Amino acid sequence: MRLSFILVCFLRIASSAALGQTIDSIQISLSRKSTDTLIFGQTFAIDGSYKIPEENLMRYPKLADVVLVQPAALVGPEKILRITSQPNFVQQSPAYEFRRYPYVNIEPPKDTTPKTPQNVYYDGNSILDGIYISESIPFKYDDTLQLMSRNPSGWKSAWDGYYVKYNSDPSVTDSVINTLKNDFENYRKTVAQPVINELLQPFYLSPHEVTNAQYREFVHWVRDSIVFDLLFRELSDYDAIELLDCTKKQRALFDYSDPDSLAIYLTRYGFNYDYFKQKKINIYNYYDNEEYFSIVSQLYYPKVERFYQRREFNVSKFVYQSTACSPTPVYPDTLCWLRDSPYPEYGPFTDLYFWHPVYDNYPVVGLTEAQMKAYCDWLQRKKNKELKDAPYTIRVELPQLFHYEMAAKLCAPTILRNKIDAQADAPFIIERAPEDAIRFITRCSPISPKEIMALKERFPRLIDWHTINQTYPIWYLTGGVSEYCSESTTPQDQMTVLGGNRTIGLVDKQENQLNTIFYQQTVPADKGSSTIGFRPVIYLDWK
Fold first, then answer.
1. pLDDT per residue over 177-213, tens digit each?
2. Number of CB atoms found within 10 A of residue 57's CB
3. 8 A C-beta contact, residue 481 and residue 442
């Protein structure tokens, strides 16, 4: 009885320890295809696995409106995380080969570059920590070994005329091998490992594209900041300091003798953008406050340019200025609907899509690359101001290809995670007629059961498309609008976009719909489109 009790206690302790154990290392593959077809399918990682930094095992906070993507948790059933969006990086790894040549008194042929083997696991070949030993030529005691080095274009001679007599002097051979091992280890630590650290750093991704309501908040902030700057410069000193975000006690200590003091206080405290809301003053209404209105009216179109004499903002003056980016007009191009689809059905979208509340939860469109970057910079500043007491700061960026690959793997079943290929061939494309495409303009959030029933009755094809796009927990990765992707290889005046949109539907013939996320197009970076949106990526930088 006592023995059984001890055994039960032992099993309970063992099981609790196993359950509490966390994953601290994973295998990583940066190959375009499976590991069977490349010499270095799994590379850069010590002993074939990557040690996750301790900070990556910390408990990341739950942030509103974003989804945490932990790359360490995205391994497939083989305990490998395959990242196909970094194929070129593998080709740049320094690898070496000892290739045998029959010993003769004449020089070997100049063109001695061997073909890359299709499989390195057959008998006779081996990999020694980044050094590839080719044993495919029948062994001969009088062979010599020529040192070959791998580069992006294949294999080539590392040192012309450098040979090592096979088995003639083991100390020489061992010395060469140790030198190569040291070179490879240094490359792995200084070049490869930082890239892996970046790839495996947890990040947050928006569950949907940036909406009209979210981007409109940014536009209104730019408008208000310009208005506050105008008022601060043109009001009297006493009235101007009321706009600062400081207390009455702090204002009482202000020194007005220095002409530059107001600029110093503005830098120190910034504006209180809720000031007029708290005072219940509408500065855009002439009858509410004539003094304020006479100043802010500089932002309106002049009378000669007004439509039916209506007071409307000259949105070309809404320019975002920051040290992180050049001055950028932030208002989206609302005419992109007619430029992309010159049909009368799209006229209402030109007039209503960006500002009408019914389209609040629809993805914002008509933006240039500079406007997307300006939004990310503003969002970063806004979030860090809200979280000034947090033990971390927020960094907001535009997503790269590997971010989308990680997001797709998060939405995929575990068995499919290593089958998702960010470098897949172009999928089968369905081009929709303009009249048909208008029905595929949808909001960012998933549709409700009630809407599903209504769509089934009216548009049977549309409900199938909705079902395909219901990727969880990150929605509409495969469709809705094509999404901006930051790629270093894209020309400066172009931008890369991924996925389908209302005008094109993407269907993978092999029925791996998640691979269609990576269908790439290149478009001008300085022109907005009604088929392109974006979603930001958020990193935490611990203080």
1. 777 777 777 877 787 777 788 888 899 999 999 999 9
2. 14
3. no
Residue entry with tokens 């005691």 = 141
pTM to 2 decimal places? 0.81
CA–CA separation, 411 and 475 (whole Å): 9
Give the pairing type, strands 504-507 and 428-431: antiparallel
**Domain range summary for the chain, segments of one domain joined by +:** 23-88, 91-199, 212-338+354-359, 367-542
Q: What CA–CA distance (Å, rounded) separates 159 from 284?
A: 76
**Rounded CA gap, 320 and 224, in Å?**
11
CA distance 347 to 338: 7
Cα–Cα distance, 313 to 306 (Å, whole number) = 10
CA dist 332 and 315 (Å) reads 9
3-state SS track over 280-304? CCCCCCCCCCHHHHHHHHHHECCHH
Identity (one letter) of the amino acid at 219? V
Q: Cβ-count burial of 481 within 10 angstroms (0-12 exposed, 13-18 middle, 19+ buried)?
A: buried
Kindly state the average pLDDT of the residues 90-102: 61
Q: What are the residue ranges of helices labelled H in 126-211?
A: 170-187, 193-199
For 197, the token pair is 């650290």
Q: Are 509 and 373 within 8 A, CB to CB?
A: no
**What's the rounded Cα separation, in Å, for the pair 499 and 235?**
51
Task: Locate 80 and state its tokens.
Answer: 């490998």
- CA neighbours within 13 Å on the CB side: how many for 511? 0
Q: At 108, is the pLDDT very low, low, confident or very high (cuts 50, 70, 90)? A: very low
179 Cβ contact list (under 8 Å, min separation 6):
none
Whole-angstrom Cα distance, residue 134 to residue 114? Answer: 10
The single residue listed with the structure tokens 């001969």 is: 140
Task: Tell me the C-alpha distance between 383 and 393, whole Å.
Answer: 8
